[in-house]
Amino acid sequence: MHSDNVYVSITGLRLKGRRHLLRFWWHTLRSMVQARRAPGNLRTEMRMVGCVHHTLSVWTSEQAMRAFLVAGAHRDAMKVFRAIGNGRTLGFVTDRPPDWDDGLRRWHSEAKDV
After folding, report:
1. Domains of the chain, first to last
2. What distance in Å separates the CA atoms of residue 55 and residue 14, rounded to the nearest whole number?
3. Are 16 and 85 in contact (CB under 8 A)?
4. H helix or E strand, kind and range, residue 63
5. What is the pTM of this model?
6. Tens of pLDDT along 32-63?
């Protein structure tokens, strides 16, 4: 990977029902704090589009993102993921991080179910 490249991760989660909102926000807020403090994180944002909760994060490398993915609050969130919602994720290397519109377009066409 060229040194100017970054790794982008875009996720989307649709809750299985309103009863999961509190649990979702508990895990989401903790994971967002963790992501923003994680080594290699350059940007982490969240946005709701329709009924889907999205995150877009930019990392110095895929390895940095994967280290965050399996640790701390995010690891705990992944344990309850299937119980509270259904989602899709997309990760890719790029030399220019996408804005939300471009990222969501790419997510819609390329994301994989998790």
Report:
1. 6-113 (3.30.70.100)
2. 12
3. yes
4. helix 62-69
5. 0.92
6. 999 999 999 999 999 999 999 999 999 999 99
